[in-house]
Specification:
The complex is a heterodimer of chains A (about 210) and B (about 280). In chain A, about 80% of the residues lie in helices and about 0% in strands. Chain A is an all-alpha fold and about 210 residues long. Chain A is globular. With about 280 residues, chain B is of the alpha+beta class. Chain B contains eight helices and five strands; from the N terminus they run H-H-H-H-E-H-E-E-H-H-E-E-H. Classes of the chains: A mainly alpha (about 210), B alpha+beta (about 280). The interface of A and B includes residues 168, 177 and 178 of A.
Amino acid sequence: MAIYYSILLLIILVIGLIRYKGLNKPFKILTWSVLVVLLCSILSQIFIYRYKNNALVLHIESITGYLFYSLIYYYLFKNKKIKIAIIISMIIVLVFFVINALFLQPFYKIFPTNIYLPTQILFAVFSLLLFNEMLMYPVKINIIKQSVFWYNTAMLFYATIMFFFLGLTNYLGEHHIYDLFILYFWFFIISVFHILLGIALITDKKKYEESYA
Amino acid sequence: MRSLMPDESLRILVLLTVTFFVGITGFITYFVVLYRNKQLKNKQEQEQLQSAFQQELLKTQIEIQEQTLTHISSEIHDNITQVLSFVKLNLGMISNVTEINKKKINESRELVSQSINDLRNLSKSLSFEHISLLGLVKTIEMEVERLNNSGLINASLSIEGEIYSLGEQCELVLFRIFQEALNNTLKYSKAKDLKISLQYHFELFNLTLEDNGIGFLVNSYLKQDGLGLRNIKNRAALIGAVAAIESSPGEGCCIKVALNPLKVRLYTDGSHPDRFS
């Protein structure tokens, strides 16, 4: 399963790198984030194999993921207040990450749910706000061809389902049932998420998108 | 109870998963529909704004043109024809000349008289007041007469139906369309005959100009620099009329302006958003 996931990430990374010059700034950042996720995925497997615990990698992945995706949102939003809010949230999450990794959920042994859950809520909020902003300033391009739409859909899907998934995993994990189901379901979520990001990278163009407003 | 747990949990799990996917798919679909509606609405608004801007631009152009034509008309009438009349009088006052010279002077006086008449007619055709005073039919009749006298083309005018007024502004616009079409015919068509027709029906007025000239490809002409033809279409649109231009190489040209007199009132009395006033 991990190999398939890594291959998928590699394909998306290659797409991003091939189209890199033609991409807008947020989607250049997205390409780099895919690279980081791919490296984390490989490292995670190494850690599981060597130390039987990949909590450290997941801690790193949780904070880098938040910083990358928030930075992309920072460039996608037009509203200055939201931009400032994103920067503030990045600082707060970074500080909280350090506190959490050192005192609450030690980075060497516990999965960082304290970081994942609030950041998924923030992503869902950003996503809904961006959808709202898109409605306020529609551009003349078909929505299916808009990279912002695909990125935002990916984030909304990922953020909401992750929140939901973590709750379910917690419940099912306690009863030790459907472990394989959880694994497949998890693979399905991240695959859909990264495929949507891949579509965003394919559809993005460095051309000026003329607004109606 | 423990043995029932997996089935119960599975049901809840499937239900929650399906609900979630239906929910998120529904949300995204709703957003796409909403976005497309917004795009459509904005596109329509933008087109309306552009159309209103074009109309305003056209109105301004026409106003400036009318002012210029009125100025030229008054200059011809008040200045040039007066000077020519003075020249004619002076020529008449010349005495003690030989028979040959007298004949030449008389010929010159006749030429000056003809010039004065031509200039007066030209002045009238340019003047808004004159068109307003005489009406569309009379003014076109005079133009036809002027054309036939000039020998440039053999023009004929036919009128169908009972003549009614289309309103000063509308008739002025129609006359300017007529002039534009006439100008094109004389300049480019190499036609020998020109048929002009005015049809007055209850809910339809038609102005048609048909020549037997060399013709042209309408689409390619409009795409290149067909300013005259575009002017005809734009002017027609300004009073709520539709101008159709039919032509092909070797087949002459036919320009038809169709107008609903009831609709014209909307444009000229100020109740239409694209009104002409």
